[in-house]
Description:
The complex is a heterodimer.
Chain A: H1 8-27, E1 34-36, E2 49-52, E3 56-57, H2 67-79, E4 85-86, H3 89-98, H4 104-108, H5 112-119, E5 123-137, E6 140-153, E7 159-171, H6 178-188, H7 191-207, H8 214-217, E8 226-231, E9 238-239, E10 244-251, E11 256-261, E12 265-274, E13 277-283, E14 293-300, E15 306-318
Chain B: H1 5-28, E1 29-37, E2 49-52, E3 56-57, H2 63-77, E4 83-84, H3 87-96, H4 110-117, E5 121-135, E6 138-151, E7 157-170, H5 178-190, H6 192-211, H7 229-258, H8 265-280, H9 287-294, H10 297-313, H11 335-341, H12 344-347, E8 372-381, H13 384-396, E9 401-405, E10 411-418, H14 421-434, E11 440-445
Parallel strand pairs in B: 2-4, 2-5, 3-5
Antiparallel strand pairs in B: 1-7, 5-6, 6-7, 8-10, 8-11, 9-10
Helix pairs in contact in B: 2-6, 7-10, 8-9, 10-11
Amino acid sequence: MGRRIVGPSRIFPFLTPCIAYFCILLAGCGTVDLEIRQGYTNSNMQPRSVAILPFTLEEPDPEEVSPHELFRTCFYNYFSYLGYVDLPLKTVDQKLSRAGLTDSNKILELSPEKLRRILGVDAVIRGRVLAANNFTGGIHAETSIHAKIDMLDLRTGDILWETEHKEMIYSGILSPTIVDIIRDQMENVKVHQAYFKTAEIFSVNMMKEIPDPADSWNEEIRLPKITYIETNLKPDLKLKPSDRIYVSLKGDPGLTGYFDIGSWKSNIPLKETVPGLYTGSYTIKASDKVTSSLIIGSLKSKNGLIGKKFYKNGMAQFDSSSTNGP
Amino acid sequence: MTLTTKNISALAWYRPLGMFLFAILISGCATDLQTKVAGNLNSLSKDQTVAILPIETSHLGQKEMADMFRHGLYANLKQSKFNLLEKYIVDGLLKQNNLNDPASFLTINPMQFGEILGVDAVVFSRINKVERTYFILHSSIELSISIQMVDTRTGEILWRAEQTEHDFSGIGKIPTGIFTALLAPIQFVTNKFNLRKMTAKMLDKLTALVKKPENAETNSKFENPVIAKKATIDLKKIEELQQLKAEWTQALALDKEMEPEVLQDGTHQEAEKETRALKNDPSSLAPQAMDKIQNEGPLRSGVRKVLDVEGELAPLPTVPQPKGQEAGTPAPLNMWKATLTTPTHIEDGEKQPRELVKSGKNIKYAPTRSAAFYTVQVGAYKTKAYAQNLSNKLVKKGYNAFVTRNNKQIYRVQVEKFKNKEDALKLAELIRKKEKLKNFVARATAG
């Protein structure tokens, strides 16, 4: 028995909607088209420190939310995963504010030299949100962010990369199931979350395209070195209120030293008495809620890296009858 | 408004339909999240740094998912109260220390990560499952992860969570048409966007409590501090070491008072000098010196035990010095301790020729194998009655206790005579535990 061959006329009516459906689905998860304008072959030329400038919004703020600020925060959270030394947003804002710059639009117009002087970084990321939209009505729900983002090298004034992209979360008549439509509608009504989610997807998609110099710095990473740590703890010594723990450590000179007693007392300062030798002490108070703890010495460098060393010859042990031990 | 019979019958139809839709809506994307935080998580601030370690996967195909998850976890925890160590620094330092296998991270003491990375806490995570299934009109994705944050300073588990997220596409979700019924399940499992969306949703729920630990309800908090297994073991060893050192110090004091007969005067002083040096910096001692200390009667058991415990503490045999830099990485914990335990002459101490007796002085104290024995010394008194009293008590309890007197007129209470030192050590441990009597193993000569 021969098989009946299905003719093209039977397939076409199904094929067209199928293609249309897939086109719509794929349109929802667009990739970011990032144009790299200045690629550095020499890793030494790559910008190391980066600040993310306040993002601007071309249209007036939608009610109660600032999508551009949300987007900046979200972008920063994802961007700091890459191998740049990124200035915290708070620090960027403080530095700009100290320089009398509070208008985001005016900040974008500043010359690279002036920005470098104010922020002290190699490059900045500038973001302009061209349009932001959140709409829920009938069976249609949509949240979108359309933005233009670039990285400007403050040392040369060159734009290293730039992109203009629209990220949209859409749900409506073309959604595959009724349950999805209802769920998406319910989620889209929460405007703040909907913008954040859209910004998140935008950021994730962008991060895949932004050059990551992490591998270039691998060999250069070096924590402050501590060669030894010493304390006055003795094996049979039970500490009581007003007893004093002395700590001294030897390591790289010119750094900020401190020590911790377990996790209940942190950042007790150490003074550098001679280059590379740090000493300090802590007097036990009756109100201290103490447990047997290890003493940990730390040295912090200017770039925020911390070297730690545990004093492992014994723990600080406390006389539980005289302190508020647990 | 009054309800007519028609309205009521219409409601009777809509209600089950509504409930059915609602049930699907809820069950469509099921989440099973078990999370607990410790009270000490609240004490972390921007002064404390946390490192997110590379994610362990259950098989190779999950690498992409692991990267995506780690990136998302980082972005989410960036909104928390503590500081995060940048990913490239974490990875760079781990690489420098040859720690490339996330599966082995949980076997390493968190304190060690504290030194290697310079952080106050570390986040371990594992992807247990990434399962995508498809069967004609139905497809589903299931993700399962487990995670824990450990304080490197104390070994305490600050946050522990297990989460399983499940979503599906199929007839159950009421397709909008025949094409969507056929194609949506395929699209659901093949489009990476759905996996990304699910991961983002999962992370949002997962990290909610860590971002705001003050909102944790009682059932989401650990009742008592939970210490990570590896940290517990090592902390116990440190405590044991400390206790042994305390006992050792006590034994030394006693030993000094009694001038043990097995030592010559000069050699004893020398051994003490070395012992003091060991306390300050054990790495400064030459193996020969260590060997000499090991061979001295009352000191020997203490020193050996301390060294045994310290040796057990020696971690990370896989960590070599970083390539091309001398000072890049902190030295592994107890590296010096590891070297001290390795020389075989510590164990073979008794087989070494003893130079103490070569001078010929005090030859009567020179231990000879035939006459020497090991005993457990539990006390030493200047008054004989006290010594006798303790001895009698022990005898009543069934111990073979006796009192001896040395040339300084000190009365020593000793228990049992052994040819084998190991037996003496066992008895010493038993007396310490059962009778709560501090003691040490001494070597003496018969008669």
